[in-house]
Amino acid sequence: MKIPVLKINQFKEPETLNDFYINSFSNHIDLNKKLLKKPHSHNFYLCVIFTQGSGTHEIDFNSYQVNSGKVFFLKPGQTHSWKFETKPEGFIFFHSLEFYNLKFLDHTLQSFPFFYSNQNPPLLDLSKKELNKLKMLFEEVYKEYLQKNLLRELKITNIVNNIYIELTRAYTANIDIEELVSTNYSVILENLENLINTNFYREKFPKFYANQLNITTKHLNRVVKNAINKTTSQLISERIILESKRLMIHSENNLADISDTLQFTNYAYFSKFFKLKTGFTPLSFRKKYAIFK
Protein backbone atom coordinates (compact mmCIF):
# COMPACT_ATOMS: atom_id res chain seq x y z
CA MET A 1 0.00 0.00 0.00
CA LYS A 2 1.46 3.34 -1.04
CA ILE A 3 1.08 6.68 0.70
CA PRO A 4 -1.68 8.52 -1.22
CA VAL A 5 -0.55 11.55 -3.23
CA LEU A 6 -3.43 14.00 -3.50
CA LYS A 7 -3.95 16.24 -6.54
CA ILE A 8 -5.73 19.58 -6.73
CA ASN A 9 -8.60 18.29 -8.86
CA GLN A 10 -9.52 15.71 -6.20
CA PHE A 11 -10.71 18.40 -3.80
CA LYS A 12 -14.28 19.65 -3.85
CA GLU A 13 -14.38 23.36 -4.59
CA PRO A 14 -17.08 25.95 -5.25
CA GLU A 15 -15.58 27.29 -8.49
CA THR A 16 -12.97 25.70 -10.69
CA LEU A 17 -9.72 27.55 -11.31
CA ASN A 18 -6.89 25.70 -12.98
CA ASP A 19 -4.06 24.78 -10.60
CA PHE A 20 -5.43 26.75 -7.63
CA TYR A 21 -7.75 26.04 -4.69
CA ILE A 22 -8.76 28.02 -1.62
CA ASN A 23 -11.36 27.41 1.09
CA SER A 24 -12.11 28.18 4.70
CA PHE A 25 -10.33 25.49 6.67
CA SER A 26 -13.44 24.15 8.43
CA ASN A 27 -15.29 23.87 5.11
CA HIS A 28 -12.26 22.24 3.50
CA ILE A 29 -12.18 19.57 6.23
CA ASP A 30 -15.93 18.94 6.02
CA LEU A 31 -15.93 18.59 2.23
CA ASN A 32 -12.87 16.36 1.99
CA LYS A 33 -13.08 14.07 5.03
CA LYS A 34 -12.42 10.90 3.04
CA LEU A 35 -9.28 12.31 1.43
CA LEU A 36 -7.85 13.71 4.66
CA LYS A 37 -8.53 10.96 7.20
CA LYS A 38 -5.19 9.22 6.57
CA PRO A 39 -1.62 10.57 6.26
CA HIS A 40 -1.00 11.71 2.69
CA SER A 41 1.20 13.86 0.50
CA HIS A 42 0.41 16.34 -2.30
CA ASN A 43 1.72 17.18 -5.72
CA PHE A 44 1.28 20.93 -5.04
CA TYR A 45 2.39 23.76 -2.71
CA LEU A 46 0.18 24.38 0.33
CA CYS A 47 -0.31 27.22 2.79
CA VAL A 48 -2.74 27.21 5.72
CA ILE A 49 -3.40 29.87 8.36
CA PHE A 50 -5.27 29.17 11.61
CA THR A 51 -7.43 31.77 13.36
CA GLN A 52 -8.99 29.35 15.87
CA GLY A 53 -8.70 25.77 17.04
CA SER A 54 -6.10 23.48 18.60
CA GLY A 55 -4.48 20.16 17.83
CA THR A 56 -1.40 18.76 16.15
CA HIS A 57 -0.03 18.77 12.62
CA GLU A 58 2.42 16.01 11.81
CA ILE A 59 4.79 16.65 8.92
CA ASP A 60 7.26 13.90 8.03
CA PHE A 61 7.30 12.49 11.60
CA ASN A 62 7.67 15.89 13.29
CA SER A 63 4.67 17.07 15.34
CA TYR A 64 3.70 20.75 15.59
CA GLN A 65 1.03 22.41 17.72
CA VAL A 66 -1.96 23.94 15.96
CA ASN A 67 -3.37 27.15 17.45
CA SER A 68 -4.47 30.64 16.46
CA GLY A 69 -1.75 32.45 14.51
CA LYS A 70 0.00 29.34 13.20
CA VAL A 71 0.84 29.18 9.50
CA PHE A 72 2.06 25.98 7.83
CA PHE A 73 3.81 25.53 4.48
CA LEU A 74 4.13 22.25 2.58
CA LYS A 75 6.05 21.39 -0.55
CA PRO A 76 5.15 18.55 -2.94
CA GLY A 77 6.00 15.13 -1.57
CA GLN A 78 5.89 15.90 2.15
CA THR A 79 3.68 13.51 4.14
CA HIS A 80 1.36 15.04 6.73
CA SER A 81 -1.77 14.51 8.81
CA TRP A 82 -4.03 16.48 11.17
CA LYS A 83 -5.45 15.76 14.63
CA PHE A 84 -7.72 18.41 16.16
CA GLU A 85 -8.79 18.83 19.77
CA THR A 86 -11.09 21.83 19.10
CA LYS A 87 -12.70 22.93 15.85
CA PRO A 88 -10.19 24.65 13.55
CA GLU A 89 -10.91 27.86 11.66
CA GLY A 90 -8.83 29.72 9.13
CA PHE A 91 -8.01 29.44 5.45
CA ILE A 92 -6.13 27.01 3.25
CA PHE A 93 -4.93 27.46 -0.30
CA PHE A 94 -2.74 25.41 -2.58
CA HIS A 95 -1.50 25.64 -6.14
CA SER A 96 0.85 24.10 -8.66
CA LEU A 97 4.38 25.35 -9.24
CA GLU A 98 3.34 26.63 -12.67
CA PHE A 99 0.43 28.66 -11.29
CA TYR A 100 2.90 30.92 -9.54
CA ASN A 101 6.14 30.68 -11.52
CA LEU A 102 4.59 31.39 -14.91
CA LYS A 103 3.21 34.71 -13.61
CA PHE A 104 6.46 36.09 -12.23
CA LEU A 105 9.61 36.19 -14.31
CA ASP A 106 11.87 37.94 -11.78
CA HIS A 107 11.45 35.45 -8.95
CA THR A 108 10.00 32.01 -8.24
CA LEU A 109 8.40 30.17 -5.34
CA GLN A 110 11.88 29.14 -4.27
CA SER A 111 12.58 32.81 -3.54
CA PHE A 112 10.59 32.38 -0.33
CA PRO A 113 12.56 30.78 2.55
CA PHE A 114 9.75 28.45 3.62
CA PHE A 115 9.77 26.87 0.14
CA TYR A 116 13.38 26.92 -1.01
CA SER A 117 14.76 24.26 1.28
CA ASN A 118 13.36 21.37 3.29
CA GLN A 119 15.92 22.35 5.95
CA ASN A 120 13.95 25.49 6.82
CA PRO A 121 11.04 25.18 9.32
CA PRO A 122 7.62 24.50 7.72
CA LEU A 123 5.73 26.77 10.10
CA LEU A 124 5.39 30.32 11.39
CA ASP A 125 3.79 31.76 14.54
CA LEU A 126 2.19 35.15 13.83
CA SER A 127 1.60 37.91 16.34
CA LYS A 128 -1.99 39.09 16.77
CA LYS A 129 -1.28 42.15 14.61
CA GLU A 130 0.33 40.05 11.87
CA LEU A 131 -2.52 37.53 12.02
CA ASN A 132 -5.18 40.22 11.54
CA LYS A 133 -3.28 41.64 8.54
CA LEU A 134 -2.80 38.26 6.88
CA LYS A 135 -6.36 37.17 7.63
CA MET A 136 -7.68 40.09 5.56
CA LEU A 137 -5.49 39.08 2.61
CA PHE A 138 -6.67 35.46 2.78
CA GLU A 139 -10.29 36.67 2.95
CA GLU A 140 -9.67 38.82 -0.12
CA VAL A 141 -8.33 35.84 -2.10
CA TYR A 142 -11.26 33.68 -1.01
CA LYS A 143 -13.81 36.35 -1.97
CA GLU A 144 -12.23 36.76 -5.40
CA TYR A 145 -12.09 32.99 -5.86
CA LEU A 146 -15.84 32.66 -5.30
CA GLN A 147 -16.64 35.23 -7.99
CA LYS A 148 -16.10 35.27 -11.74
CA ASN A 149 -14.85 38.78 -12.29
CA LEU A 150 -12.66 39.91 -15.17
CA LEU A 151 -8.94 39.08 -14.64
CA ARG A 152 -9.88 36.92 -11.67
CA GLU A 153 -6.84 34.65 -11.89
CA LEU A 154 -4.42 37.57 -12.22
CA LYS A 155 -5.84 39.29 -9.15
CA ILE A 156 -5.68 36.07 -7.12
CA THR A 157 -2.06 35.52 -8.10
CA ASN A 158 -1.13 39.07 -7.14
CA ILE A 159 -2.77 38.77 -3.72
CA VAL A 160 -1.12 35.39 -3.14
CA ASN A 161 2.21 37.01 -3.98
CA ASN A 162 1.51 39.75 -1.41
CA ILE A 163 0.66 37.06 1.15
CA TYR A 164 3.96 35.30 0.51
CA ILE A 165 5.86 38.58 0.84
CA GLU A 166 4.20 39.40 4.17
CA LEU A 167 4.77 35.85 5.42
CA THR A 168 8.44 36.02 4.39
CA ARG A 169 8.93 39.24 6.34
CA ALA A 170 7.33 37.69 9.42
CA TYR A 171 9.22 34.42 8.89
CA THR A 172 12.64 36.08 8.71
CA ALA A 173 11.83 38.43 11.61
CA ASN A 174 10.96 35.62 14.01
CA ILE A 175 13.84 33.28 13.16
CA ASP A 176 17.56 33.87 13.48
CA ILE A 177 18.48 34.78 9.91
CA GLU A 178 21.61 32.62 10.16
CA GLU A 179 19.41 29.57 10.59
CA LEU A 180 18.02 30.08 7.08
CA VAL A 181 19.80 28.78 4.02
CA SER A 182 22.01 31.47 2.52
CA THR A 183 20.58 32.80 -0.73
CA ASN A 184 24.09 32.51 -2.23
CA TYR A 185 23.79 28.74 -1.97
CA SER A 186 20.03 28.32 -2.27
CA VAL A 187 20.06 27.40 -5.97
CA ILE A 188 22.68 24.67 -5.55
CA LEU A 189 20.99 23.35 -2.41
CA GLU A 190 17.56 23.35 -4.05
CA ASN A 191 18.91 21.49 -7.09
CA LEU A 192 20.69 19.03 -4.82
CA GLU A 193 17.54 18.33 -2.81
CA ASN A 194 15.56 17.79 -6.02
CA LEU A 195 18.22 15.41 -7.33
CA ILE A 196 18.27 13.46 -4.08
CA ASN A 197 14.46 13.19 -4.08
CA THR A 198 14.58 11.76 -7.59
CA ASN A 199 17.60 9.48 -7.29
CA PHE A 200 18.12 8.43 -3.66
CA TYR A 201 16.77 4.91 -4.24
CA ARG A 202 19.69 3.96 -6.43
CA GLU A 203 22.30 6.72 -5.92
CA LYS A 204 23.54 6.89 -2.33
CA PHE A 205 26.92 8.62 -2.69
CA PRO A 206 27.80 12.35 -3.07
CA LYS A 207 29.92 11.88 -6.20
CA PHE A 208 26.86 11.18 -8.35
CA TYR A 209 25.13 14.39 -7.24
CA ALA A 210 28.25 16.50 -7.66
CA ASN A 211 28.62 15.20 -11.22
CA GLN A 212 24.97 16.02 -11.96
CA LEU A 213 25.53 19.57 -10.70
CA ASN A 214 28.79 19.91 -12.66
CA ILE A 215 30.82 20.71 -9.56
CA THR A 216 33.39 18.77 -7.55
CA THR A 217 32.37 16.68 -4.57
CA LYS A 218 34.59 18.87 -2.38
CA HIS A 219 32.82 22.04 -3.52
CA LEU A 220 29.40 20.48 -3.08
CA ASN A 221 30.27 19.50 0.49
CA ARG A 222 31.53 23.04 1.13
CA VAL A 223 28.25 24.52 -0.12
CA VAL A 224 26.12 22.19 2.01
CA LYS A 225 28.34 22.73 5.06
CA ASN A 226 28.25 26.52 4.79
CA ALA A 227 24.52 26.60 4.03
CA ILE A 228 23.10 24.20 6.62
CA ASN A 229 26.09 22.82 8.55
CA LYS A 230 25.62 19.30 7.22
CA THR A 231 27.37 17.07 4.71
CA THR A 232 26.03 15.84 1.40
CA SER A 233 26.10 12.30 2.76
CA GLN A 234 23.93 13.39 5.69
CA LEU A 235 21.30 14.82 3.33
CA ILE A 236 21.23 11.60 1.33
CA SER A 237 20.99 9.48 4.48
CA GLU A 238 18.23 11.68 5.93
CA ARG A 239 16.18 11.25 2.77
CA ILE A 240 16.63 7.47 2.84
CA ILE A 241 15.66 7.34 6.52
CA LEU A 242 12.61 9.53 5.94
CA GLU A 243 11.39 7.27 3.14
CA SER A 244 12.10 4.22 5.30
CA LYS A 245 9.93 5.63 8.09
CA ARG A 246 7.14 6.54 5.67
CA LEU A 247 7.06 3.03 4.25
CA MET A 248 7.23 1.38 7.67
CA ILE A 249 4.37 3.40 9.14
CA HIS A 250 2.15 4.28 6.20
CA SER A 251 2.32 1.01 4.29
CA GLU A 252 1.75 -2.64 5.14
CA ASN A 253 4.84 -3.85 3.31
CA ASN A 254 7.06 -6.24 5.23
CA LEU A 255 10.48 -4.94 6.24
CA ALA A 256 12.39 -7.07 3.76
CA ASP A 257 10.27 -5.67 0.92
CA ILE A 258 10.96 -2.13 2.16
CA SER A 259 14.67 -2.92 2.12
CA ASP A 260 14.32 -4.10 -1.49
CA THR A 261 12.30 -1.02 -2.46
CA LEU A 262 15.08 1.20 -1.14
CA GLN A 263 17.56 -0.91 -3.13
CA PHE A 264 19.76 -2.10 -0.28
CA THR A 265 21.80 -5.19 -1.08
CA ASN A 266 20.14 -7.14 1.73
CA TYR A 267 17.91 -6.66 4.77
CA ALA A 268 20.77 -7.06 7.27
CA TYR A 269 22.62 -4.09 5.75
CA PHE A 270 19.43 -2.00 5.70
CA SER A 271 18.68 -2.86 9.35
CA LYS A 272 22.22 -1.94 10.41
CA PHE A 273 22.05 1.36 8.48
CA PHE A 274 18.66 2.27 9.96
CA LYS A 275 19.74 1.52 13.54
CA LEU A 276 22.95 3.52 13.11
CA LYS A 277 20.98 6.58 11.98
CA THR A 278 17.95 6.33 14.30
CA GLY A 279 18.93 4.20 17.29
CA PHE A 280 16.13 1.73 16.46
CA THR A 281 15.96 -1.43 14.42
CA PRO A 282 13.30 -1.23 11.68
CA LEU A 283 11.09 -3.65 13.63
CA SER A 284 11.39 -1.78 16.93
CA PHE A 285 10.67 1.54 15.21
CA ARG A 286 7.54 0.17 13.55
CA LYS A 287 6.32 -1.28 16.86
CA LYS A 288 7.15 1.86 18.88
CA TYR A 289 5.45 4.21 16.45
CA ALA A 290 2.37 1.99 16.24
CA ILE A 291 1.87 2.32 20.00
CA PHE A 292 1.54 6.09 19.77
CA LYS A 293 -0.74 6.01 16.73
UniProtKB/TrEMBL annotation:
Residues in domain HTH araC/xylS-type? 190-288
UniProt entry keywords in alphabetical sequence: DNA-binding, Transcription, Transcription regulation
PROSITE patterns from the UniProt entry: HTH_ARAC_FAMILY_2
Origin superkingdom: Bacteria
Question: InterPro entries attached here?
Answer: AraC-bd, Homeodomain-like_sf, HTH-like, HTH_AraC, RmlC-like_jellyroll
Mind telling me which Gene3D superfamilies this protein's record contains?
Answer: Homeodomain-like, Jelly Rolls
GO MF entries: DNA-binding transcription factor activity; sequence-specific DNA binding
Keyword Transcription regulation on this protein?
yes
Name recorded for this polypeptide: AraC family transcriptional regulator
Q: What is the lineage of its organism?
A: Bacteria, Pseudomonadati, Bacteroidota, Flavobacteriia, Flavobacteriales
